[in-house]
Predict the structure.
Amino acid sequence: MRYVWRSLLFCTLMGGALLTPLSAVAAPLWLGSDIPYRVWSDPKGRLSLREAVPEIARHGTLAREVLSRGYTREVVWLRFTLAADAFDGAPLWLEIKPNFLDDIRVYYRPLSGDGSWRQRRVGDTFAAPRGDLDYRFPILKMPPPPSALGYEVVMRVATTSSLLLRIGFWQPEDFTAHATRSSAYYAFYFGLAGLSTLLALVLAILLRNRLLWSVAFMAIPYAMMASIEGFVAWSLPGAGILFQHYLISVLALLMSASLLWMPVEAIALRERVPWLYRLFVGACCLSLPLMLSIPLGFYSQAIRLQTTLHFGIGLLFLIYCLRVWIKERFRTLSFALSVGPFVVTALTLYGLLVLAGWVPFKIVFYRAWQYSLVINMLLVMGVAVYQVRQQYREAREKKLLARDLRIEREASFNQRQFMGMVAHEFRTPLAVIAGCLENLRYATDLAQARQRYARIERANDRLVQLTDNCLVDARLDAENLHLDLRPADLLEIVHSAVALIHFSDNHACQLDLDLDRSARVEAQADGLYDERPWIDAALMRIALSNVIDNAVKYSASGIIRVECRRVGTSFTLAVEDHGEGVPADRVDIIFERYRRVDSAIDTRRGFGLGLHVSRQIARAHGGELVLARNTTSGCRFVFTIPWNATKGGRA
């Protein structure tokens, strides 16, 4: 994603490089700024050229700017003179912009007044070819005047759209260079806009983000701009001109809504000012029924109504932005995120006023609007992706928090059960001790006393084992657990762990203790290993005794086999029983805290801590405890512990 943004930024800068010298390549004569003209309106549009010329002379107003009258049904007449010096002995090419004018008639004759008027006609609704060149705009070739005085020119302009007329008189070679660069620039501009819109659309579909949807709908003003610049009709010969004409009318009703939607979403107006957001949505929804105004003939009234609504909403938006900036004292992040939408909205409002004919047209604002659209769209896309990333991060954190809460609830429930099991487990050996002590008061036979003492010893050992499990579990949960690592005798640990377990009459213990002493001594001679492994002997004894005790509880009878071997850089401790095995659906939980496997063989309750504590002890040493074999005829649990990999270390 980072490379996409860099590429789009690079393309934007390159587009700026292409745009900057456009005005320097060629300098045409512009009607208004270079050539003043007189303008007069014919409300009914019925006058002929002969009738209109004296009316222009008597009632026409002198103008020195681009003709912009807004949405009007009036026919507008223009009259001006074109000096012979402008031709420089070669024809002039007359370029007529923009592309939504219905009917334009150009009349010209020599200023001497001797010749008759020559007429040229172009326009979106005129069926004849559009000018003398195959270009995006109508181009009319005017030959050099026959006299040194120049031409008298009269123009008749009629349209059902906004009346905006920008006319330039070009030298042929200047126009060729300009047209080449202009077409290349706009092709690049719309390509960049299309790529950005497509990327926004894909992200909007994948991420389901309203802000990205608003960016994707920026395709509407881009399509509007492409139509005004003539690319639609140019790429669709024949009926493309008429299609482009009506497409501009439709897009004009949708454009202001799409342009305001992105700034509205960029500053989260829905959450901050709900009433203004609802007003904006209502104004946008009004655009759909207003499209009926095109075939029904009240388009100018509809577009003025919509312009008024959207201008008011945009103005409120600008005021709100200023209020936020002042309130937050132009805080960097807030200002950076809202200044782009602010500029786009301001330029959009200016464009609405131009189309309505309320303010004069300025090309510099049109260029600034073009650039602000792309730059702001890229900025908003970056903000949107950042916001989505934050939302996903928050959602992930909420999911993890919910999981931790669920685990905590389960742990709380299991702890309550654990306390009940503790009470029961401790009560049984304590009852044995209490009963034996009571009987010792009256014992007269030494054999009976010894039997009582043996029972007390077994009950005490059971209490010690239960207490050790609880204490070890608490130690393993603590942070920065320190292991008491010392050289330990594995044989002694195994014998001690086996001694803690009191086997029933149906069980026997078989020890297979092969530490491969000769191999260990040879490794020691090479300086690889110590004579004894460095482990926490007390913890390892508890871990092994838990697994052995588990084997006794879950096997009705048989031999409990305990193996101890050194394998390479580790040693293994294996405990094998002849029980009924662990059910397949319970294998994954046997090492979890407070989880037990119900069995008809097990006549004693437990904490559900034994295997959990044993595995945690193994992992604290850098090793592991696994269920190596699980069959209906028995299980095999195997410890794998490094020989001295954690010497002097911590868990």
In short: The first helix runs from residue 2 to 19. DSSP finds 19 helices and 18 strands in the chain.
